[in-house]
Amino acid sequence: AMLRLRLLTWDVKDTLLRLRQPVGHSYAAEARAQGLQVQPEALGRAFREVYGAQSRRFPNYGHGQGLSSRQWWLDVVKQSFRLSGVQDEAALTKLAEKLYRDYCSSHNWEVLPGAAETLSRCRQLGFCMGVVSNFDSRLEVILSQCSLRHHFEFVLTSEAAGFAKPDGRIFEQALRLGGARPEQAAHIGDDYSRDYRAARAAGMHSFLLRPAGQGGGPEVPPEHVLPTLGHLLARIEK
Known about the structure:
Elements: E1 7-10, E2 17-19, H1 23-33, H2 40-57, H3 59-62, H4 69-83, H5 89-102, E3 109-111, H6 115-124, E4 128-133, H7 139-145, E5 154-157, H8 158-161, H9 168-178, E6 185-189, H10 192-201, E7 205-209, E8 225-226, H11 232-236
Parallel strand pairs: 1-4, 1-6, 4-5, 6-7, 7-8
Antiparallel strand pairs: 2-3
């Protein structure tokens, strides 16, 4: 069956971009630059714990709870260092502000193999393209710094939308921005529930980026699975 697609929406983290190194390592490197010795592994564990707790307490960067995403992140960074034994408040503030800025840049992010080529090809084929990402307002800058921003008509973050995937309302906003009905749109992402299942629940087509050898997830029809981004073109060629 030919898919009559007009709009492609894209997840970003671990679909188009990935972190160059684990969070604990970049946090520890920044601490070292400021004369503090903190173990990367300990920082990584602390970060996962703090990030999880902050996300439960203030979902979607504290949207609607009076927090800015910047403050949300500064708190996460400081708390991660505190849990790892850093108590100096002046140092914590400096670290948090530096790291908040650093994660805006291609210094910490790299483009996944095949992403730029696949996006270029999709644009050449005439698809309208947008980003739908559980991310804060820094995403525009990050995509620009990584030379991907020009591929997209719009970048919709959960912070701007006020809803985070898997909430269907973020996909409804994306469909409005892309001027497409759900059946004319497909979403591409790496997370089964937030990307694949959520887009389908919104009436869209969806493809799950699941690198070969990464089994162990829920069953997905093989024609909906992308072992690499390069596999997308065969699935959607007009």
